[in-house]
Amino acid sequence: MKITPHFFPLWILYLISCALFAPTTYAGNDTLSYRLGSGDKLKITIFNQEDLNGEYTIDGAGNFSLPLVGTIAAKNLSLEELEVRLKETLSPDFLLNPQISIQVLNYRPFYILGEVEKPDSYPYVSGMTYLNAVAIAGGFTYRAKQDYVYVVHSNDSTQKEEKTKMDLPVMPGDIIRVDERMF
């Protein structure tokens, strides 16, 4: 097939557009649909309801307590799903057509163990990779495998450990294990 001058620029443009607009996925999960879990700190604003506005931390059971309403289950919900749940809970008994805004102030920490200098839990930072997480934990020990890590995602119901590349993004609540090399 002969590539004509008119065809070639369109072909390059097509490849660039495919790369730029590819969906953002990570290990089969959509990173844009974050699921809430224990340790997440939320800021909830309900229009014209100063008594209900505030910062709430999701407890170990995946719940938080809203004044006048009581316990709200938030574990494994997206922010949009939590907003719908709050609207259903508040209307019509407490408020008529409540306008709600929810933000995540602090994500739950990630955990790193194995062949790193300082295994511990660390605050999650959006956009960090597994290599960044290792650096935060003081770097690799001299015995560490440095090509990949094993990860258990907090939102994975099977809690299965996955072998993961170092340049992929960390998710809140991830348990990261750096393996030991043989030689």
Mean pLDDT: 84
Sheet bearing the most strands, described? 5 strands, mixed
* CATH architectural name of the largest domain: Roll
- The CATH topology label of the largest domain is Outer membrane lipoprotein wza fold like
Low-confidence stretches: 10-31
Q: Shape from CA axes?
A: elongated
Reading off the top of the CATH hierarchy, the class of the largest domain is best stated as Alpha Beta
Number of strands: 12
Task: Estimate nothing, just give the exact number of structural domains.
Answer: 2
Rg from C-alpha positions?
Answer: 22 Å
Kindly report how far apart the N and C termini lie.
Answer: 51 Å
Fold and architecture overview:
- This protein has helices at 7-20, 79-90, 130-136; strands spanning 25-26, 29-30, 41-46, 54-57, 63-66, 70-73, 100-106, 110-114, 120-122, 148-152, 162-165, 175-178.
- With 183 residues, it is an alpha+beta fold.
- It folds into 2 domains: 41-106, wza like fold (2-Layer Sandwich); 110-178, Outer membrane lipoprotein wza domain like (Outer membrane lipoprotein wza fold like, Roll), CATH 3.10.560.
- The strands form 4 sheets. The protein has a 5-stranded mixed sheet with strand order 9-8-12-10-11, with helices on one face. A 3-stranded antiparallel sheet has the order 4-3-7, covered by helices on one side.
- A hairpin with a 5-residue loop joins strand 8 (110-114) and strand 9.
Keywords:
183 residues, wza like fold, 3 helices, alpha+beta, 5-stranded mixed sheet, elongated, Outer membrane lipoprotein wza fold like, 3-stranded antiparallel sheet, 2 domains
